[in-house]
UniProtKB/TrEMBL annotation, chain A:
Residues 139-161 are annotated as: Disordered. Signal peptide: none annotated. This is Ubiquitin-like protease family profile domain-containing protein. GO terms for cellular component: cytoplasm; nucleus. SUPFAM superfamilies: Cysteine proteinases. The keyword Transmembrane does not apply. One of its GO terms (molecular function) is SUMO-specific endopeptidase activity.
TrEMBL record, chain B:
Pfam families: Rad60-SLD. It comes from Lentinula detonsa. CDD domains: Ubl_Smt3_like. This is Small ubiquitin-related modifier. Residues 20-97 form the Ubiquitin-like domain. Residues 1-22 are annotated as: Disordered.
Length: 290, 100
């Protein structure tokens, strides 16, 4: 590994730890009490849960960790509450990490936690290969990641989609433990990607992302959607990484959850307990360096 | 729209002349703006307290975000390298489980 890539990885990692420790300082006893069974998770726990998972990836799967970008739980709320242009003005700087501009088109997975205010419900959108909204064969111009720029040759191209005979398309995968329908999510995220491509790369001729509903296990109570959401993010990103394509058929999705069905309920029960431990670990111990 | 001055005792920074107040705009998700003047060394939690008071909300239900990242209790405009006329987004706690 070259010195530069080591330095980049170090900067990436230390930013991470700082962010996590900051998040933990903001978590109050009231928030922690929400980890008890039967309580609903709030934005502070959702953000901590996603970022802790992402931090774990920097150690277990460093390359994958660099391909993931986790958005704030408030990001989609801003997109939803404003016109696309107005919303973009407000979130334009949200891709900065410690004053360093992150090129989201160089990432493979954009993780977007979504809060439905009217239903008090959390669900998840994962934008898979956002760079495919850029003009065809236009890899991210500022991508520092050789993995990303060589990807179109080395990865299988998805050609099965009826509306894309040639060009691979960006997917917005929606994972909702209530099995809800959210047609507005893909159009809002597509509008965001269009404006981001224009503002950061001066690229105008973008295409829209394609919506994909992923069949997921449904929640059995009225309190666990946040826990399901964290669980889905973890399993689904690992699945996409290992299969290198978004599930195209119902069968694919079923296989995905079949593999972990046995562990599924056990893991959800464990999740709340683990979150408490992760919180304490971040607060009182030094996190392990990769 | 309103303006408030945070009054804090002079610190070492003041003596060095590195603590001139900056203007900060706090914008809610619905776009309402409140303007504050704050010294660079003043913890932003004081601003959060003042804001919560002004809008009649409890402090623990309010989040300040700068460039989309949560502002921590101990952050100051200086530690975040904020500039004059910068914007802080204010968000309200989101809770989810599913309540039909």
């Amino acid at each position: 590994m070259s010195i530069i890539s080591q330095l980049l990885r170090f900067a990436f990692y230390s930013n991470f730890v700082r962010t996590l420790q900051k998040l933990v300082r903001n978590i109050k006893p009231d928030d922690i009490a929400r980890l008890d069974p039967g309580r609903m998770l709030n934005d502070s726990l959702i953000e901590f849960g996603l970022r802790f998972w992402h931090h774990g990836l920097t150690i277990s799967h460093p390359q994958l960790a660099e391909d993931v970008f986790v958005f704030s739980p408030f990001f989609y709320s801003v997109l939803e509450a404003n016109s696309p242009e107005e919303a973009y003005k407000r979130v334009k700087t949200w891709t900065l990490r410690g004053k360093i501009q992150v090129d989201i088109f160089s990432k493979r997975y954009l993780v977007v936690p979504i809060h439905d205010r009217s239903q008090h419900h959390w669900y998840l959108a994962i934008v898979y290969r956002p760079k495919f909204v850029l003009p065809y064969h236009q890899a991210s111009p500022t991508s520092p990641n050789p993995h990303a720029s060589g990807e179109s040759e080395s990865m299988p191209v998805e050609v099965n989609d009826k509306d894309s005979d040639v060009a691979p398309r960006t997917r917005v995968c929606i994972l909702d433990s209530l099995g809800g329908c959210h047609p507005q999510v893909t159009s809002r995220l597509s509008a965001y990607l269009r404006l981001e491509a224009d503002a950061k790369h001066q690229l105008r001729d973008t295409s829209d992302a394609v919506e994909r509903y992923v069949r997921v296990p449904l929640q059995l109570n009225q309190t666990d959607c946040g826990v399901y959401m964290l669980y889905f993010a973890e399993i689904f990103v690992e699945y996409l990484e290992s299969s290198m394509s978004a599930p195209e058929s119902q069968e694919d999705s079923e296989n995905l959850w079949d593999i972990c069905r046995l562990q599924h309920y056990h893991r959800l029960n464990q999740y709340r307990m683990n979150m408490t431990q992760n919180f304490l670990k971040t607060k009182y111990c030094n996190l392990i360096s990769p | 729209m309103s303006e408030e001055d945070q009054q804090v005792p002079p610190t070492e920074e003041d003596v060095k002349g590195d603590n001139t107040p900056i203007n900060v705009k706090v914008v809610s998700s619905s776009g309402e703006e409140v303007f504050f003047k704050i010294k660079r060394s003043t913890p932003l939690r004081k601003l959060l307290g003042a804001y919560a008071n002004k809008v009649g909300k409890q402090e623990h239900t309010i989040r300040f975000l700068y460039d989309g990242a949560r502002v921590a209790q101990t952050d100051t405009p200086k530690s975040l390298e904020m500039e004059d006329n910068d914007t802080i987004d204010v968000m309200v706690e989101q809770v989810g489980g599913y309540s039909p």
